[in-house]
Amino acid sequence: MNELELKYGCNPNQKPSRIYMENGADLPIEVLSGKPGYINFMDAFNSWQLVREAAAATGKPAAASFKHVSPAGAAIGLPLSDIEKKIYFVEDMELTPVANAYARARGADRLCSYGDWIALSDECDEATARIIALEVSDGVIAPGYTPEALEILKTKRKGNYNVIKMDTAYVPAPVETRLIYGIGFEQGRNELPIDASCLTNIVTENKDLPDAAKDDLVLALITLKYTQSNSVCYVKNGQAIGIGAGQQSRVHCTRLAGNKADNWLLRQHPKVLELPFIEGVARPLRDNAIDVYISEENDDILRDGAWQEVFSVKPDVLTLDEKKEWIAAQSGVSIGSDAFFPFGDNIERARKSGVQYVAEPGGSIRDDNVIEAANKYNMVMAFTGSRLFHH
Q: Which of 10, 219, 239, 335 could form a disulfide linkage to 104, CB 3.0–4.6 angstroms apart?
């Protein structure tokens, strides 16, 4: 089959719609369940590239949570700590490496991952399918599914959940084309390999880059390769914890991603871990309540009895001073940027979220200022020499 008709394009008024292959070649996918749409396939193919490259670069299973052609989260399959299991709501579940990867990818930004598209680098097993079954998502792409996993996924959404099997042998053409306003564009595919060899040009005084930090920076760069530009990505322990996408200003990307990283860090605050949720509260309601609780408007959920919808007793306020103290105590975070940091203000903002390791292309006329800012905080910064714009 070299063509698949779709219900509509990005919007219901955009018809006809299809995906197809040139020259009569077969599509490299098999739809095992559901009827994926135009945006579903855009997310599926972008996210598949991300997890395939992340797994190849790190030697570990990878997963991504995609929304509107950019990742909300990405991760490799490292074991979860007890706290991570709790904040991802998987304390009582069996966890395999692939399941760990998806729990982490979904947990990067649970609010933005609501209704996500899922990508898995490895076969979807039963443990991963059981996590997917509990979350609100649009579909999943993977190289295969165990019979048990497929049976679970086919029951989701009353049997209409989107499940795509990807042909791992598929190799795209080296030149890609697209039409914008009826005008053809053509370029070579971005086949730039990203691995630890990209991090050898360390330009700071501190040159101590541990292997775990190398994995984190590689994951950050691969994530950025498939994130709408401008983009910045914070990573810790093999998991993207803050992604800023599609901003016109670099520092706005850094702030946006940094704020998301701060939220991830605050989810682990003792006051958040001890929130007295009513038994049986749905996951999306818990996510929304936590997001409000850790925000600057956290009084909103605690006044006028609104807290009674999700909490059994009124929780204590998480004060601004407590939040600042908690975030200031964090460390070991990595950050990647898809293009150079033009000013040291990006480093200043990154430092506030515990960043110690930095990877960016370099090449700004103010590189000296950026290096000086990194040295000020004893960071390790590598210039990769490669820009990663994605549009």
A: 239
